[in-house]
Amino acid sequence: MRRLLDIAEEEIASFLRRGAAVAVEALEKALKEGVDPEEIRKMASQLHAMHHEVSDLVMEAVARYNPVASDLRFLKGALFVSYDIYRVARYAYDVALVRKKLGEGCWSRRVEEVGAVVKKMVAEAVEAFLTRQATKVEELEKFDDEVVDKSYEDALLEVLKGADRCKVWETVVLRLLERASDHAVYIGNHAYYLVTGQVRRS
User: Fold this and answer.
1) Is residue 202 domain-resident?
2) For the segment 33-45, what is each residue's pLDDT rounded down to a tens digit?
3) Helix 4-30, helix 69-102: angle, nearest 10
4) Rounded to 5 degrees, what angle do the CA atoms 182, 116, 174 make?
C-alpha cells in the first residue's frame, strides 16, 4: 500500500519537473533575438510562486507524516531545488534584458553553445535529484568548469583587450549563463546529499 508521504512526494516531484521545463524554456526564449523580457519575467514569477507552493507542501508533509532519513532529505532538498529552478529563470530574465538593451543584432556561437549546455544541465540536474542519481553531480561540475566557466573567462579576456558592443553583450550573457549553470550544479549537489546523506564539498 502506498504511503500518504509517497503521494505528497510525488506531488512535489511533479512541481519540480514542470518547473524545470519552464526554466529551460525561459532560457531558450531569452537567448533569442527580439524576445520581450516581460514574457521571461512572468515565467520567473511563475517559478517563484511554485517555490512557495513547494515550500507549503514540504511543511505540510513534515507536520503530518513525520518523515525520517531519505524522506526528510528529499523534502529538504526539494525546498532548495525549487529555489534553484526559480533562480535559473531569473537569470534568463536578466539575459533577455541584456539582449534588449545591448545585444540587438549581435550573435555569438559561444553563447549558443553555452546556452545549450546550461539548458541540458538544468534539465538533467533536476531529473538526477528526482531519480536519486548521486553520481550525476560530477558530470555537471565538469560541464560547469570546462565549458561554461571557461567560455566566460575566455570572453572576459577578449573584451578586456578591446571591446565592441557585441563583445560586451556576449561577455555579460556568458556571465549570467555561468551563474545559471552554478544552480544546476547546486541541484546536483542536492541529489548527492539525498542519496548519500553527505554534503558534497567543492
Assistant:
1) no
2) 889 999 999 999 9
3) 20
4) 55
How many domains does the chain contain in total? 1
Q: Which amino acid is at 51?
A: H
The answer to whether position 69 is within a domain reads: yes
Structural domain boundaries enclosing 109? 4-196
- Would residue 78 count as lying in a domain? yes
Contact between 191 and 129 under an 8 Å Cβ cutoff? The reply is yes
Residue 32 per-residue DSSP state: S
One-letter amino acid identity for 179? R
What is the CATH number for 114?
Answer: 1.20.58.220
CB 39, CB 99: distance < 8 Å: no
Burial class (CB in 10 A: 0-12, 13-18, 19+), 116: middle
**What own/partner pairs with CB < 8 Å and gap ≥ 24 does 158-165 have?**
165/102, 165/103, 165/106
Q: CA triplet 185, 47, 175: central angle to 5 degrees? A: 45
Residues making up the chain, counted from first to last: 202
**Residue 90, in any domain of the structure:** yes
Which pLDDT tens digit goes with each residue over 177-189? 999 999 999 999 9
**pTM, rounded to two decimals:** 0.94
